[in-house]
């Protein structure tokens, strides 16, 4: 999740380090176990990168993936056979660049009207100078596979081209990113402004089309493009580290369900903001862990983006 040369080691950030040589040789077609790309209707690709044995190994990503899978199966009725997981645990395929690219193919293969897709990423995120003029802030956002040092990062342009542009009418993709600098990682043209309650135009200055082929793409990101994202153990009953954004995302949805209430997109975003803000200000209790992680310097602002403007009072569904 993350990159900074000055921030606390408790914040997810990466430091360049050689990955295990063996990982560079692994080439697994992650969709070969299901050539048709999973069951019709609902399909999810979950990716958690721990960067084991690297200097700045992440502590929360493995738990993030487990928690997200539990949410999708238990809350939104995703079939277990329609969820693909890449992680560094032995029972899963490793999240190399090649495998993540295969995972994108698996997610999009044979999409049909009525399909609901989810891509979730928990890991390091970076920025790099944009050279083609399609970024408002002049930077491309990236996600880092486990082998990013040898095989490169995956930039927002490629993510948009692979899992946003192909979306046909009747298909909805939710991209959920718990990583640094992830605000506009899907390169979607509309970004919700929580202060004004309106959508801001984030279309590329170059005029490049970044929308879909008639479907809908919605993104939830851990923070703005210039911000870092944090780990915390404060929201876990077992005190296990997870991404702060993932914790607040799941917490808001489960609380609404437990209270037999529906949650809207705006309500979900508001809840995430409030929980993180409270954790940043609190000196103890439930949110003390977030306070320690932030060290009074980092307050991340979760972001909502979309391929098209919509009424955020609409019920949130996956």
UniProtKB/TrEMBL annotation:
Q: Which SUPFAM superfamilies match?
A: Caspase-like
What's in the GO CC field?
cytoplasm
A Gene Ontology biological process noted in the UniProt record is: proteolysis
Give all residue intervals belonging to the Peptidase C14 caspase domain: 43-305
InterPro entries named among the record's database cross-references: Caspase-like_dom_sf, Metacaspase, Pept_C14_caspase
Keywords of the record, alphabetical order, are: Signal
**GO MF annotations for this entry?**
cysteine-type endopeptidase activity
Q: Which residues form the signal peptide?
A: 1-21
Q: Which family does it belong to?
A: Belongs to the peptidase C14B family.
Q: Could you tell me what this protein is called?
A: Metacaspase involved in regulation of apoptosis
Q: To which species is this protein native?
A: Handroanthus impetiginosus
What is the phylogenetic placement of the source species in the record? Eukaryota, Viridiplantae, Streptophyta, Embryophyta, Tracheophyta
């Amino acid at each position: 999740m993350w990159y900074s040369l000055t921030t606390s080691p408790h914040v997810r950030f990466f430091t360049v380090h050689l990955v295990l040589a063996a990982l560079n040789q692994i080439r697994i077609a992650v969709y070969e176990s299901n050539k048709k790309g999973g069951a019709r209707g609902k399909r999810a690709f979950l990716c958690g990168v721990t960067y084991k044995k690297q200097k700045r190994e992440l502590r929360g990503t493995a738990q993030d993936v487990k928690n997200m899978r539990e949410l999708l199966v238990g809350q939104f009725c995703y079939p277990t056979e329609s969820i693909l997981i890449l992680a560094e645990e032995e029972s899963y395929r490793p999240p190399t660049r090649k495998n993540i690219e295969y995972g994108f193919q698996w997610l999009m293969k044979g999409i049909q009207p009525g399909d609901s897709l989810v891509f979730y990423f928990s890991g390091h995120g970076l920025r790099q100078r944009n050279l083609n003029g399609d970024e408002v802030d002049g930077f491309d956002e990236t996600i880092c596979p486990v082998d990013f040092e040898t095989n490169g990062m995956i930039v927002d342009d490629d993510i948009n081209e692979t899992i946003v542009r192909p979306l046909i009418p009747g298909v909805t993709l939710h991209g959920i990113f718990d990583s640094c600098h992830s605000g506009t990682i899907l390169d979607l043209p509309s970004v919700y402004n929580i202060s004004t309650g309106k959508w801001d135009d984030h279309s590329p200055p170059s005029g490049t089309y970044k929308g879909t082929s008639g479907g809908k793409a919605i993104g939830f990101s851990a923070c703005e493009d210039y911000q870092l994202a944090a780990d915390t153990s404060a929201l876990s009953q077992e005190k296990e580290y997870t991404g702060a954004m993932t914790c607040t995302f799941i917490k808001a949805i489960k609380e609404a369900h437990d209270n037999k209430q529906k949650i809207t997109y705006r309500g979900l975003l508001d809840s995430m903001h409030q929980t993180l803000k409270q954790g940043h200000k609190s000196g103890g209790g439930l949110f003390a862990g977030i306070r320690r992680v932030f060290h009074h310097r980092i307050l991340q602002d979760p972001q909502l983006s979309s391929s098209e403007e919509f009424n955020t009072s609409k019920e949130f569904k996956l």
